[in-house]
Design brief:
globular; alpha/beta; two-stranded parallel sheet; single chain; disordered C terminus; 301 residues; 9 helices
Amino acid sequence: GSLQLGDTGFLVLDEADRMLDMGFGIQIDKIILHLSKARQTLMFSATMPHNIKSLSQKYLNDPVRIEVGLSSQPALSIKQEITYTTAAGKYAELMKELDQREGSIIVFVKTKWGADLLSEKLNKQNYSTNAIHGDLRQNRRDRIIKDFRNRSYRIMVATDIAARGLDIPHVSHIINYDLPQCPEDYIHRIGRTGRCGAEGSALCLITPEDKKRWHAIDRLINPQKGGGSANFNHKEPRREPRQDSRRSSRQEPRQEHAPDSKKNSFERPKAPFSPSRKPQGKRFGDGKGPNFSARRTQKGY
């Protein structure tokens, strides 16, 4: 059979910015070819970047824009916080935040593999957790969201697939374990809490590698101030005082070796041989020396 769309009078594009940004304009064009020209087109989105706005003009004729609040500003009922940490200390910081917070929590990560890995790791630490991402079948995703809505578990680890269109009133906290790649996705993510005027909180764990992405988010939310994190509560991690090993080594008295009268005074004394003494590894290259572990990089989630 075939579908006749000649008498269709309405075209609705929900989450229009994401559809066009992901390249679905070609499919939309094919559908519009079969629609009546005398129709009404409606586009919905919490954010509408300038490049997507200009791209959408081809589907609209003398449009009227209706805006509730500012598209670049999250709801005022959401308390936003940022915590500076390191890649190695991020997981420990996450567990501390989970212990301090009450209610349902969505933890956002950037990859599907990272969502499964983090959920499995939290479950081993006795946190009630499940993961959702795009690699799951639709019926599996529906079941996870239904269980989370029914409070079968407290924490849902998710990719940006859960950043839009998810309305669960009892979500109290959003934790951005990984910052989003697109600044506008930050507004969609934290919009999963503070629904319909309710209070909520949103926390970002920021590492030195996130500096560029965080500045882009900050500029989006504070365009007049050029960023500056004016709307955020900062949490600085406790840092131990740094010791300068070079300065301390210069302060130590230099030990001189007394020359042996039977040997050349310019010859450096040799250390006595000990059978228990183990040979030191090479400084670079062999992967067995004492400096090798410092060159390894820790895998992220």
